[in-house]
Amino acid sequence: MSPLLRVVPPAAWALATDGEAEHIAFFGDDLEPLALATSALGLGLRVADGVGRVAASGDDLGRLAAELERRGSALAGPLARYLSPVEVWRAGPHELALDRPLVMGIVNLTDDSFSGDGVGTDVAAALAHAERLRAEGADIIDVGAETARASRPQLEARAEAAVAAPVVAALVGEGHLVSIDTYKREVAEAAVAAGAAIVNDISGLTLGTDAAEAAAEGGAGYVLNYSYTVPKHRPDPAPVYADVVAETVSWMAERLGALEGAGLSRDAIAIDPGIAFGKSHDEDLQALRRLSELRTAGQPLLLAHSRKNYIGSVSGTGPEDRDLETHVSTALAYAQGARIFRVHDVAGTKRTLAMAAAILSAAPDAFAPDEGSWPWAAGATALEAIAEKALIEPPSGQRW
């Protein structure tokens, strides 16, 4: 399946040294107007197997989008969308700027969470856990009352809402920005009425747009999660992908149209590649390797990868011992444009993202030496520097 548009953005380190680094755009249809437009602009076009390929700077792609629009091409809209990504995610009354990473801490109101960290249905325990996550730096608290594990029973919607809504209300009362992890309209409605600002829907619209409509009607943000089949059902036979990432890009474009038709504004929608949903562990790794291509949609990119089983296939560790590998995945995903991270270990994630951001996007002088630099006193020679009189205490946030 060739999506109408799939873009491979330049790597962050390429853009750091060359503002004109090339984006590689693949076009799956409307190739005749594309050929005319690229010819008129002096841009190169290669066509193979019915797919057009254009490598160009962001500015040149902007010119191409305008020329395609002038020619009435269906390619103009998707290209313009890629070039104008959502910069602020609107979640209820909250406007979440994406110029820094956001961390979504997990509160599972279950006893059967795969990672073993569920707090059960006790409101006080949920509040205590959420407060720990906030103290560690969580921006969002994601509350779920049903495990996504296919081996566990599905809760009846009314029972799930009865567990989730009081916890959401209590968390909002304590000043938390809350997301409800559900695919059921009744649960989403109850949680949003209780103050939840985001509906995190793992169904990928496989059950229709009910949860999305509940988010739209309540003015909440919404997370579209890639899913091959309905929640809590393992596909049989297993899916076969010609190109799992290209097919996910195409899948996202189709669902985004449905969401906007259901009343959600573009700036209310984040997308999630669905790690562990309808993919083998090898395909999960492919999705992580090429995560930047999901930026084709121009939507905020959320990653829910924490402690999942693809890690076990690589490291052999159990869910309780996968935070290190989760952090490695987080850093690599940040480098590819992911900006929202749903995790168990918030403190470790904050440290990981601070380091990733320092390497990838900090200003060149953000960590430059100053007059308080350590370990040598200003003006000391090499001989003096090893003498006790030349030693000084390292300043807070030492720079040398």
What is the compact description of this entry?
The chain has helices spanning 12-17, 31-41, 58-70, 76-83, 123-136, 157-173, 185-193, 210-218, 244-261, 281-289, 309-315, 323-335, 346-360, 382-385; strands spanning 5-8, 23-27, 46-48, 51-56, 88-91, 94-97, 102-108, 140-144, 178-181, 198-201, 221-225, 269-272, 302-303, 340-343.
Question: Describe it for me?
Answer:
There is one protein chain. Strands 12-11-10-9-8-7-14-13 form an eight-stranded parallel beta sheet, covered by helices on one side. Strands 1-2-4-3 form a four-stranded antiparallel beta sheet. Helix 3 runs antiparallel to helix 4, helix 5 (123-136) crosses helix 6 and helix 10 crosses helix 11. It starts with a strand and ends in a 15-residue tail after the last helix. The mean pLDDT is 92. It is α/β, with parallel strands linked by helices. A hairpin with a 2-residue loop joins strand 3 (46-48) and strand 4. The protein contains 14 helices and 14 strands. The chain has helices spanning 12-17, 31-41, 58-70, 76-83, 123-136, 157-173, 185-193, 210-218, 244-261, 281-289, 309-315, 323-335, 346-360, 382-385, and strands at 5-8, 23-27, 46-48, 51-56, 88-91, 94-97, 102-108, 140-144, 178-181, 198-201, 221-225, 269-272, 302-303, 340-343. The relative contact order is 0.10. The radius of gyration is 23 Å and the shape is globular.
